[in-house]
Amino acid sequence: MTAEEKIITAIEEATGISVTEEKIDAVKSRINMIFDYLGYEEGQALAAEDGEKPAPGANGIDDALIKYLEELSRLTLTEDEEKKAKEDLTKILDYIDTLNQLDTDNVEPMSHPFPYTNNFRPDEVKPSEDRELILKNAPQQKDGCFKVPTTVE
Question: Which of 40, 89, 126, 153 measures 20 to 30 Å from 147, CA to CA?
Answer without folding.
Answer: 126
